[in-house]
């Protein structure tokens, strides 16, 4: 038996994963004569979009965003709405905030007390009884107090009327507006929580209450701290927005420079990446060690993160030794991982460098591809805005629904619907003295209102489908443009004009169904993940150790499945851009091609993505170091940074995150370019043999490096 012969019962690699491509003398790149693919899925996709538009129009007719923007009083009227009696009354006032701490609030999602719109919050302590006594001497007390009463309120003339009067709150205390609602003006005095410098106050019913009895006082105090933090963050943005834009502009220019340099000095630039990343991480380790050493002199720094708990003042964590020690350990681990990857993947780095050079040439010949992420960003922004607007209109659809609320919690009719116009004349008011008919929410009993939860699910699903479709469209269009570059024998003379525009037109005209098919699979997986997270949130209190373990396993499995499908889809879109076949056939061909070259794909792709990831990190890290030195006044030689910042990490993190997103936009085009060229190269090796009749389209440096690893290719 010859060396080239195989036993009959032993399947070959080609038989396992499909036959390699045979030579086609007419094939010269992406097929021009093609037909529409996956028409059924295209029709379903278009019908879903039409239904989505109709849903948005119906929600726009029934919804009212003012219900989300303005607080609503007990009668269902908006506070601060123009053209109404409440136009100048923009704040919601609670008659008895103590009742908002009862368990019924958690059940009914509505505070069981009268709520009215006011122009300002109370500024002093005063009970209704005290006001009536002072009113006999000075009429101004009633004028000050009546603004927190119903419009029908009048001064009482007897003790009996005083006890039965429910048009005014029994007491008021110093408050401040927060989220357009009056909340107690909490402050701390010698470490004790107070309201208006008092720890106790009169409730207006003859009793004395403590601040702690408000129940949610601690939570409200934390909300106020969060508000203070938000104001400080806003002030920092207002002070540094100009410098943030400059930093993001530098990041964009730096990304452009790196992409241009990759074409000429990819190898040297790769080692610049590596040295830069290792140096940035090393600087982080050194800085963490310096901070850790300096804090050893402070006795308070020995506290742990667990000791201080959750704090809204983030700077407190940076005063602890443990924080900087954790930073130092994490950075050391990352440094070791990067160095080990360089050692063990040094051979495949050569392949990645050649692919990067080829990608740079392709982008250099088709520079319009670097602008395409802007189109993707615009389309994604449109989808996100439409989804948010539709969700808001759906959430605010309906008419005001009023519920019976018993402040004391002892009424058999509690939580039943009622009519505030005739409530006092009904049997419910007689059976439950003191019960209120307050506004609860917006809803209705029509067919539309009954299916609003279903419409929310549909809104979310179509949103996910559209988002993934936009991403798939970008990948297919870019793949078509870069495939046109690869299959041009004489570059750039044989490259047709406007390859990106042509590839985009083909994807829209012929392959909308195929792209919708692939994006539908991703959308379904993401929808399952969201349902899983929703069930986990709803059943969190009833879960045991086993259920939590199964939840983590499912979450991990869905994450792996989603990333695997995204990888296969991306390669299927490349095959669609080249051959114009349907999604299933293209996915099958891409899978077989990858399996026939599994070692080349597994290592080369990952190394290439690793190099591009290092580029993103270097861009974001370089800008981050400059921003850190600038905002902390450590770089006065170039420019004087802002000196009145509350938190320097606010503009710093914004610049780092924004720089990474900008670099990701540029390098994502590069990644798609490299992957398309690599897939075309594998197709080229199977289609041609390097002879004069069937020459390779690949560049000589890339062909040479693979010939060194494959003796059979070198022999051909």
From TrEMBL:
Which reaction equation describes what this protein catalyses?
A: choline(out) + n H(+)(in) = choline(in) + n H(+)(out)
Q: Which GO terms describe its biological process?
A: phosphatidylcholine biosynthetic process
Keywords noted in UniProt:
Antiport, Cell membrane, Glycoprotein, Membrane, Transmembrane, Transmembrane helix, Transport
Q: Which Pfam families match?
A: Choline_transpo
How does this chain sit within the bilayer? Multi-pass membrane protein
The primary site where this protein sits is: membrane
| Region (Disordered) location | 1-23
Q: What parts of the sequence cross the membrane?
A: 39-61, 241-262, 269-289, 324-345, 365-389, 462-487, 607-631, 652-672
The Gene Ontology CC terms held by the record are: plasma membrane
The yes or no answer to whether the keyword Transport is present is: yes
Which GO-annotated molecular functions does the record name?
antiporter activity; choline transmembrane transporter activity
Where in or outside the cell is it found? Cell membrane
Superkingdom, according to UniProt?
Answer: Eukaryota
What does the record list as coiled-coil region(s)?
Answer: none
Role according to the record: Choline transporter.
- Annotated family: Belongs to the CTL (choline transporter-like) family.
Per its record, how is this protein called by name?
Answer: Choline transporter-like protein
Which organism is this entry from? Pongo abelii
């Amino acid at each position: 038996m010859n060396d080239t012969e195989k036993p009959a019962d032993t399947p070959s690699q080609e038989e396992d994963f499909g036959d390699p491509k045979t030579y086609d003398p007419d094939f010269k790149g992406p097929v021009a004569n093609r037909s529409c693919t996956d028409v059924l899925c295209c029709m379903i996709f278009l019908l879903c979009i039409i239904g989505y538009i109709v849903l948005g129009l119906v929600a726009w007719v029934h919804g009212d965003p003012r219900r989300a923007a303005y607080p609503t009083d007990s009668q269902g009227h908006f506070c601060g709405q123009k053209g109404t009696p409440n136009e100048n009354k923009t704040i919601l006032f609670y008659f008895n905030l103590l009742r908002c701490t009862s368990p019924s609030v958690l059940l009914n999602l509505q505070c069981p007390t009268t709520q009215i719109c006011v122009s300002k919050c109370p500024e002093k302590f005063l009970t209704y009884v005290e006001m009536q006594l002072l009113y006999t001497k000075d009429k101004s007390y009633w004028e000050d107090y009546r603004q927190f009463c119903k419009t029908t309120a009048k001064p009482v003339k007897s003790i009996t009327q005083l006890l039965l009067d429910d048009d005014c709150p029994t007491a008021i205390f110093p408050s401040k507006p927060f989220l357009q609602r009056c909340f107690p003006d909490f402050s701390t005095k010698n470490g004790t929580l107070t309201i208006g410098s008092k720890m106790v106050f009169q409730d207006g019913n003859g009793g004395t209450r403590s601040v702690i009895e408000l129940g949610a006082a601690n939570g409200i105090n934390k909300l106020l701290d969060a508000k203070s933090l938000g104001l400080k963050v806003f002030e920092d943005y207002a002070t540094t927005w100009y410098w943030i834009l400059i930093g993001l502009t530098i990041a964009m220019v730096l990304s452009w420079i790196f992409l241009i340099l990759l074409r000429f000095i990819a190898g040297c630039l790769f080692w610049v990446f590596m040295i830069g990343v290792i140096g940035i991480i090393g600087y982080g380790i050194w800085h963490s060690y310096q901070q850790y050493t300096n804090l050893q002199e402070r006795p308070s720094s020995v506290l742990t993160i667990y000791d201080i708990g959750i704090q809204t003042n983030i700077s407190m964590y940076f005063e602890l030794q443990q924080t900087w020690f954790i930073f130092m350990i994490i950075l050391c681990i990352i440094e070791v991982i990067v160095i080990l990857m360089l050692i063990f993947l040094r051979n495949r780095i050569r392949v990645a460098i050649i692919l990067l050079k080829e990608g740079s040439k392709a982008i250099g010949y088709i520079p319009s591809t670097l602008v395409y992420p802007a189109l993707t960003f615009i389309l994604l922004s449109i989808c996100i805005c439409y989804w948010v607007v539709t969700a808001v209109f759906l959430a605010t659809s309906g008419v005001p629904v009023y519920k019976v609320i018993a402040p004391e919690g002892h009424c058999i009719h509690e939580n039943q619907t009622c009519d505030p116009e005739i409530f006092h004349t009904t049997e419910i008011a007689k059976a439950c003295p003191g019960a209120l008919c307050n506004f609860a929410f917006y809803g209705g009993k029509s067919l539309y209102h009954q299916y609003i939860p279903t419409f929310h699910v549909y809104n979310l699903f179509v949103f996910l489908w559209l988002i993934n479709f936009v991403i798939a469209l970008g990948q297919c269009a870019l793949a078509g443009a870069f495939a046109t570059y690869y299959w041009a024998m004489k570059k750039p003379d044989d490259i047709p004009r406007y390859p990106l525009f042509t590839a985009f037109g083909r994807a829209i005209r012929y392959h909308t169904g195929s792209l919708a098919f692939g994006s539908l699979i991703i959308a379904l997986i993401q929808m399952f993940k969201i349902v899983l997270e929703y069930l986990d949130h709803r059943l969190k209190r009833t879960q045991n150790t086993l259920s939590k373990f199964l939840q983590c396993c499912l979450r991990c499995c869905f994450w792996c499945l989603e990333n695997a499908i995204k990888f296969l889809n991306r390669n299927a879109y490349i095959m669609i851009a080249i051959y114009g076949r349907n999604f299933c056939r293209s996915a099958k061909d891409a899978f077989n091609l990858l399996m026939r070259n599994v070692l080349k794909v597994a290592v080369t792709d990952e190394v290439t993505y690793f190099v591009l990831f290092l580029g993103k990190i270097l861009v974001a890290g370089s800008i981050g170091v400059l921003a850190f030195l600038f905002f902390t006044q450590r770089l006065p030689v170039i420019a004087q940074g802002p000196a009145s910042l509350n938190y320097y990490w606010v503009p710093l993190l914004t610049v780092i995150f924004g720089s990474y997103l900008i670099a990701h936009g540029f390098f994502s085009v590069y990644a798609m370019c490299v992957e398309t060229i690599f897939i075309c190269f594998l197709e080229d090796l199977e289609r041609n043999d390097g002879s004069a009749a069937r020459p390779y389209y690949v560049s000589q440096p890339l062909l040479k490096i693979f010939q060194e690893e494959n003796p059979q290719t070198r022999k051909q």
